[in-house]
Amino acid sequence: MAVTIExxxxxxxxxRALGGDxxxxxxxxILMREINAGLVQGKIIRSTDPVLKQIRQSGDGFEIGxxxxxxxxxxxxxxxxxxxxxxxxGGPQIRNMAxxxxxxxxxxxxxxxxxxxxxxxARLVMTGGQARPIEExxxxxxxxxxxxxxxLPRPRDNKSFAFHKVSRVKPKGVSVMSFSALLPxxxxxxxxxxxxxxxxxxGPLRAFSAERALEGQVLDAASITxxxxxxxxxxxxxxxxxxxxxxxxxxxxxxxxxxxxxxI
Length: 264
What we know:
- The protein is an alpha+beta fold.
- Helix content is 31%, strand content 24%.
- The protein is built from 11 helices and 14 strands.
- The chain has helices at residues 11-17, 31-36, 70-74, 83-86, 92-97, 100-105, 112-119, 134-139, 208-214, 221-229, 245-262, and strands at residues 3-8, 23-24, 42-47, 55-58, 61-65, 123-126, 131-133, 147-153, 161-167, 175-182, 185-186, 189-190, 194-198, 205-206.
- A 5-stranded antiparallel sheet has the order 4-5-8-6-7.
- A hairpin with a 2-residue loop joins strand 11 (185-186) and strand 12 (189-190).
- The chain is globular, with a radius of gyration of 19 Å.
- The chain starts with a strand and ends with a helix.
- The relative contact order is 0.11.
């Protein structure tokens, strides 16, 4: 079967064109590889809607179009808190193509930015204009539909959010695991803790037991130790070509500790 490409001027038109075997093409870093390998055939849907490329302030945060590339994020001064995440994704060629929306659908070992957005409490704007919490999206992302934009709160300060990636190939290898942590403080105590990871389950997940160990605490050696002991509680780290489940369980606490210690 031949591959045909349809371009649509709006995301709504693109959404209506999807159906059957049709698939949506964003940046193409994942889908183009599958097309070239003959794994995807039939109708390919694209959209040239300018809203997909916009980054704008929205309230006390940002609204980022789903078609914004990693390079655009890395060059946006007000999104400096995301720069360590996007600069750890691939090399320059990949970052010039890969999009925010595409990373949300990326399967392990990809998805570092998706996990960071989960930690930051992002909301996703769907084609119809409704916004939904990112947690709902990850529960069934294969049937989510098209995403127009990501609503992203701004961290309170430079020490509220941090990212740590573990890979076997530096600087641009895929993740054995990565952690993103949002640790807002109120009178010196942690309130609203969110810790997200990839590499410890089938996709981006929150480490709820580690979050509970930190909530309401002062961030110090004792609270960090409690959190790291619980980081894989309730999670099922996979065994794959990068690492075994046993290895991931053994080192997850070490790497979470390295992240949290930087945030004291």
